[in-house]
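Predict structure. Chain length: 182.
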Amino acid sequence: MRNTILAKRYAKALFAVGKEENAFDAYGKVLNEISEVIVSVPEVEDALANPMYPVDVRAKVMEHLISQIQAPPQVMVNFLNLLVQKKRAGVLPDIAEVFRMMVDVEMNVCQGSVVTATELSGDLQEKLQATLEKITGKKVVLSTQVDPAIIGGMVAKVGDLVLDGSLITQLKGLKESIKGSE
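Prediction complete.
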């Protein structure tokens, strides 16, 4: 995150309004969609954040982005326009990330990821998610990734918790113990 303090300030304000309006999902969806465009298309980030462009040009770019999203809440339209007027549109991806983290804390949710050597079956993924939820005491939103380099087993991460049961890690540990006993 580049502008953590600034992002926290804007995300906190949007979070307060979202809590009052009970609109976390709608606000998060709009933030994520626009952030994805800004991150994936460097020209859009440049058009919104480059001080060489006048504010009215940046406002037209944001207006076009807003029009691409189906019926965003008026609060979000005002929020996004405010970011352009205050020359803070470049911070939008950071704001989206901080907002998501704040919503996760409020809803007792945490993000988790699992890396395996092969694709997980649906049943195994559900069991793994249930186990991680039991360990953390929170609802876990799990994302999966396949990496053949771990050879076998899995590496699960939820917040600060890392459960590494991969074969590659076990082999490295065995190698170190053999080296140490020489």
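Summary: The radius of gyration is 21 Å.
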